[in-house]
């Protein structure tokens, strides 16, 4: 057992980790909290680190009273200086009926963030997916614009001045669509037309003028023909918004990766630099690494995931307009990768995945140390 642990430690250190013996139980919690947390290391280098938060698992009242022993709540508070509600601001959660909003889950996240001195990202105001069941039956070409603007005014208006940023429009590009502009076929496109994106951004700017307004998408990070094509369409979309005077401040790079696979390279860096030339930031908004097909056992899987975090974050954080890293969840206990029982997310050996900086026992994974190492390797000008 001792020999196995030494070999594991060498593998993680090779992947860019540090203090691996914390993960193995040889040191106390203080080695990854306080000044040793992701929050502290990110802030020390002018960065923000955060995670998608699930209010149903959070003990906000106990945290407010200083009595909580809930590890998930404590972990979010200790490790993050920014959080994003994972589902609480999506249409299907917020809008149980056309004339009704349910803000309780989102309000709980906002209350926690205030107590923990954190910023909040809003995800999302307009998306083709996760629309409530009533939407398709109710929405038509006569009322769709009003449905969209009323939603944005109500939601963004409720949290006016409290959000760091909003994902205003999510995943609007599909380069395999039949359209020259690459817009994804959706109810918004069918009912309003391509200017639904302009409408969403201009409405959001009026509803919450201090928030940074973001276009968020996935599957354009790699140097592959498909990702190159999607990057080009996203860039064209953003340039068009800027040319028309539509307010936009950032592009969200979701960063859902598979391991093993090639990691991003020159194409993404060129994209980020083009955003910078337009005065735009780039955010890593939803990072995780799916290692369902990573060869070997749990130790090899952990090493591969850690290497992916290290290499990617060192690459993108070298760019001065990338100030923000979010992971899509913080522990493997709550990640969709382990919850959704689909073949592409399940390892053949049956071992649960560990795609995030903490495991299902709320201990740091090798990815935690790789992330912290990447933050410490960053020099912000």
What's the level 1 CATH class? Alpha Beta
The beta-strand count equals: 9
Mean pLDDT: 91
N-end to C-end Cα span: 45 Å
Q: What percent of the residues sit in helical stretches (DSSP H or I)? A: 40-55%
How would a crystallographer describe the biggest sheet?
A: 8 strands, parallel, barrel
User: Per DSSP, what share of the residues sits in E-state strands of 2 or more residues?
Assistant: 5-15%
Indicate the CATH topology.
TIM Barrel
Rg: 21 Å
- The secondary-structure element order is HHHEHHEHHEHHEHHEHEEHEHEHH
Tell me, briefly, the overall form: globular
CATH H level, superfamily name = Glycosidases
Characterization of the model:
- With about 375 residues, the chain is an alpha/beta fold.
- It has one domain (about 1-375): Alpha-Beta Barrel (TIM Barrel), CATH 3.20.20.80.
- The protein is about 40% helix and about 15% strand.
- The chain has helices at about 1-15, 20-25, 40-45, 60-65, 70-80, 90-95, 105-115, 135-140, 145-160, 185-190, 195-205, 225-245, 265-275, 300-315, 335-340, 365-375, and strands spanning about 50-55, 80-85, 120-125, 165-170, 210-215, 250-255, 255-260, 280-290, 325.
- Strands 1-2-3-4-5-6-8-9 form an eight-stranded parallel β-barrel, surrounded by six helices.
- Helix 3 runs parallel beside helix 16 (about 365-375), helix 9 (about 145-160) packs parallel to helix 11 (about 195-205) and helix 14 (about 300-315) packs parallel to helix 16.
- About 45% of the residues are buried.
- Residues about 1-25 have low confidence and may be disordered.
């Amino acid at each position: 057992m001792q020999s196995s642990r030494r070999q594991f430690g060498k593998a993680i250190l090779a992947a860019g980790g540090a203090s691996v013996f914390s993960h193995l139980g040889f040191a106390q919690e203080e080695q990854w909290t306080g000044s040793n947390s992701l929050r502290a290391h990110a802030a020390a280098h002018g960065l923000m680190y955060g995670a998608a938060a699930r209010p149903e698992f959070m003990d906000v009242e106990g945290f407010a009273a200083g009595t909580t022993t809930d590890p998930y709540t404590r972990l979010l508070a200790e490790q993050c200086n920014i959080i994003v509600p994972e589902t609480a601001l999506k249409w299907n959660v917020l809008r149980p009926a056309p004339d009704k909003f349910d803000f309780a889950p989102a309000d709980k996240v906002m209350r926690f963030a205030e107590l923990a001195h954190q910023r909040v990202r809003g995800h999302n105001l307009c998306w083709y997916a996760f629309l409530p069941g009533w939407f398709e039956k109710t929405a038509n070409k006569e009322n769709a614009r009003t449905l969209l603007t009323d939603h944005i005014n109500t939601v963004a208006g409720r949290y006016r001045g409290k959000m760091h940023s909003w994902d205003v429009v999510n995943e609007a590009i599909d380069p395999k669509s039949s359209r020259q502009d690459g817009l994804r076929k959706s109810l918004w496109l069918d009912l309003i037309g391509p200017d639904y994106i302009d409408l969403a951004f201009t409405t959001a700017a009026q509803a919450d003028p201090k928030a940074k307004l973001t276009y968020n998408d996935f599957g354009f990070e790699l140097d592959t023909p498909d990702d190159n094509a999607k990057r080009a369409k996203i860039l064209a979309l953003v340039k068009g918004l800027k040319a028309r005077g539509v307010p936009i401040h950032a592009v969200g790079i979701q960063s859902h990766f598979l391991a093993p696979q090639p990691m991003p390279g020159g194409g993404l860096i060129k994209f980020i630099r083009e955003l910078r030339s337009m005065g735009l930031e780039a955010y890593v908004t939803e990072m995780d690494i799916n290692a369902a097909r990573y060869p070997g056992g749990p130790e090899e899987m952990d090493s591969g995931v850690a290497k992916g975090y290290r290499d990617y974050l060192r690459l993108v954080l070298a760019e001065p307009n990338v100030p923000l890293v979010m992971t899509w969840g913080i522990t493997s206990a709550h990640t969709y990768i382990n919850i959704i029982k689909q073949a592409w997310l399940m390892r053949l050996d049956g071992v649960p995945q560990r795609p995030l900086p903490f495991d299902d026992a709320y201990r740091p994974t090798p990815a935690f140390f790789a992330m912290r190492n990447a933050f410490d390797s960053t020099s912000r000008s």
